[in-house]
Amino acid sequence: MPTDAAPRDAGRGSLSDVVTSDAALRRFLQGLPGVDAVGLEARAAALGTRSIKTTAKAYALDLAISMIDLTTLEGADTPGKVRSLCAKGARPDPGDRSTPRVAAICVYGDMAAVAKEALAELGAGEINVASVATAFPSGRAAMPVKLADTRDAVAAGADEIDMVIDRGAFLAGRYMQVFEEIQEVKAACGAAHLKVIFENGELATYDNIRRASWLAMLAGADFIKTSTGKVAVNATPPNTLLMLEAVRDFRAATGRQVGVKPAGGIRTAKDAIKYLVMVNETVGDDWLSPDWFRFGASSLLNDLLMQRQKLSTGRYSGPDYVTVD
């Protein structure tokens, strides 16, 4: 049984009405069906037992590589490290040119120009530059600061902005404040796509994750993203499944498709394939594309490359096969 469902009154006309006032938005979000936690976790666990092999596995490994937002978000990041990451994203396996490139390089805003330039020099301009913004990872700053952060990243060449919501405002029930913040950041993005990060580990309940998903999509998010990767609980199969069901139901209600990005804690090819099975079984082929599903990761790429070579040669690579990130 599905663990999510669009509200009964969520027709194309009624959804435009729910954002006309704080009271209407609150009524709508609090009126969303409650999440059956046991059912959600059982379905996520069941999907995780599916097994794929040989040709299907090879396809899944390549698809997962093409969906990675290859990420470095450390205070010690340097231009050299970002350039090295861009080189890895552009040619993940220098010995095999059939290896797909990653979807994006994700960095802090002050490194966006470095990444953009490096990718152009590598002839990999199709790889997007994603920049975190809006006082990542806490989201605690005044709106003028958040908007300036966003505009600076876009001006530096960011094709995508990963913003964090004000979890304090959301948890206090100030839904319209969060809604308007997302709208303003979306406007500041210009042509850049907007990913909205919830930090699911801090939202604490599945009901809150469902509300945040609908809130962000109503405000214009192009993607909804689980987490920053900076807290104890990041992407999990149940919270990602819940978000996939939300985007499915949002498209059914509005006709607009929104992407999903789990981030943090996805480190092995086996885990990535489980997420792809979940996508296929929950929202279908329409989301099995880097345009609509991404992995926020750093070390995941190494394991995908080693598993890919194992399929090709029948043996695992030595420890010097992949770079240490």
Automatic annotation (TrEMBL):
Catalytic reaction annotation: 2-deoxy-D-ribose 5-phosphate = D-glyceraldehyde 3-phosphate + acetaldehyde
Q: What protein name is recorded for this chain?
A: Deoxyribose-phosphate aldolase
Pathway where it operates: Carbohydrate degradation; 2-deoxy-D-ribose 1-phosphate degradation; D-glyceraldehyde 3-phosphate and acetaldehyde from 2-deoxy-alpha-D-ribose 1-phosphate: step 2/2
The record's listing under InterPro entries reads:
Aldolase_TIM, DeoC, DeoC/FbaB/LacD_aldolase
SMART domains, per the entry: DeoC
* UniProt cross-references to SUPFAM superfamilies, sorted A to Z: Aldolase
> What NCBIfam families has UniProt attached to this entry?
deoC (TIGR00126)
Superkingdom of the source species: Bacteria
Which family is annotated? Answer: Belongs to the DeoC/FbaB aldolase family. DeoC type 2 subfamily.
> Which enzyme class?
lyase
Its EC number is 4.1.2.4
**Alphabetized GO MF terms:** deoxyribose-phosphate aldolase activity
Pfam families with a match to the protein in the record: DeoC
Q: Which residues form the signal peptide?
A: none
Recite the UniProt keywords alphabetically. Lyase, Schiff base
